[in-house]
Amino acid sequence: GLSDAGAEASPPGFIAIPEVRVASVRGSVSQYEPKGDVWYFSNDWIRHSLAARPEDLKVVAIEGDSMEPSLLTGDRVIIDVSRRTPTPPGMFVLHDGVGLVAKQLEFIPNSEPPTILVRAVNPAYQAYERAMEDLNVIGRIVWLSRRL
């Protein structure tokens, strides 16, 4: 796969993380299309600072203004696709049925069925609640890169 080819070309001590777009989502299975860019990160940094496995990480580009000023169009984020449950609350990338969106997700305690509060940072966007089983969470945002 892409990560295997990238890993062979990686400098010693570094891991290649592909930049992808999510091509489709069926239930809990996401299909990724490489965008061509590969980001290199220190293996130690990934394992210790992010507490992640390299194979669970993807780089995606942010589009839209719903998370401004926290996330801006053109920002790149690393998502950890193994972390899809919002405990603790945080920023996640999810598929909303049309495309990828970044949102703040928070589990509503003692909700039955288990329910998630979905919020944008930008006050122009309304918060809403969804049953956890109805959300297609792709992964938790664990790192941000922005051009100044």
How far apart are the termini? 33 Å
**Biggest pleated-sheet summary:** 7 strands, antiparallel
Structural class: mainly beta
Order of helices and strands: HEEHEEEEEEE
Q: How much helical structure, as a percent, in the residues?
A: 10-25%
Shape: globular
Number of strands: 9
Return residue spans where pLDDT drops below 50 for at least 5 consecutive residues.
Answer: 1-7
Average pLDDT metric? 87
Main sheet: which strands, in order across? Answer: 3-4-9-5-6-7-8
Question: How many DSSP H or I helices?
Answer: 2
- The radius of gyration over CA amounts to 16 Å
Task: Give an overview in words.
The longest helix has 8 residues. The strands form 2 sheets. A 7-stranded antiparallel beta sheet has the order 3-4-9-5-6-7-8, with no helix packed on it. With 148 residues, the protein is mainly beta. It has 2 helices and 9 strands, in the order αββαβββββββ. Helix content is 10%, strand content 48%.
